[in-house]
Amino acid sequence: MKPIRLIIVAVGGQGNLLAARVLGEAAMAANIPVGMSEIHGMAQRGGVVESALVLGDAKSTIISDNAADILLGFEPSETLRALNKCHANSWVITNTKPLPPFTVNIGKGTYPDLTLMPQLIQQKVARLFTLNATELATQAGNILSVNIVLLGALTATKALPLSSQQMQDAIKKTVKKAFIDINLKAFALGEKAIKL
């Protein structure tokens, strides 16, 4: 299988690493070779967390600039920051609800103006899907399920060769039992939010 390169960007606490594990589990269950790598940047303090997944036959999990086929952004400013990883045929799926870092909250930093975000992204890539994953996670019963909402949205785009059932099975295997029902609901809401 030709490699599909996926970057997931988030801030610490948004569940990036769990989302990557769910995707890896689903790919392995589907007999798709998968490689993963992660970058943690002060994650516990709201810093950037980036996961790279390569599905298919590839020699490396490193995703260079202009090499990501899919960018999944849990936080809009992080999506913009990672846009250099995309190429003209990339697809971007992003949460639209900001989660400003603590430096902004204490008045020591500024948050970018996101009004131009869709236009900036659409100039660079082939497809853009946006949703307020934070609101959908809250509807599902837990604001911390933003990651699973976005996995539902990603699955709905059909950008990956993974079915909805394969993803749901991976959620059941990967998520703690007490949170399975909420996460399955979050996944379904994310899928429903995407219009192709």
CATH topology annotation: Pyruvate-ferredoxin Oxidoreductase, domain 3
Sheet/helix structural class = alpha/beta
Query: Hey, roughly how much beta strand do the residues contain?
Result: 15-25%
Mass-distribution shape: globular
Q: Alpha-carbon distance between the termini?
A: 24 Å
Question: What is the strand tally?
Answer: 6
Please indicate the count of domains.
1
Largest sheet: 6 strands, mixed
Describe the protein in words.
The protein is an alpha/beta fold and 196 residues long. The chain has one domain: Pyruvate-ferredoxin oxidoreductase, PFOR, domain III (Pyruvate-ferredoxin Oxidoreductase, domain 3). 39% of the residues lie in helices and 22% in strands. It is built from 8 helices and 6 strands, in the order E-H-E-E-E-H-E-H-H-E-H-H-H-H. It has helices spanning 16-29, 76-81, 102-105, 117-124, 133-140, 146-157, 164-174, 180-193, and strands spanning 4-11, 34-40, 48-55, 68-73, 86-95, 127-131. A 6-stranded mixed beta sheet has the order 2-3-1-4-5-6, sandwiched between helices. Helix 1 (16-29) crosses helix 7, helix 5 packs across helix 6 and helix 5 packs across helix 8. It is globular.
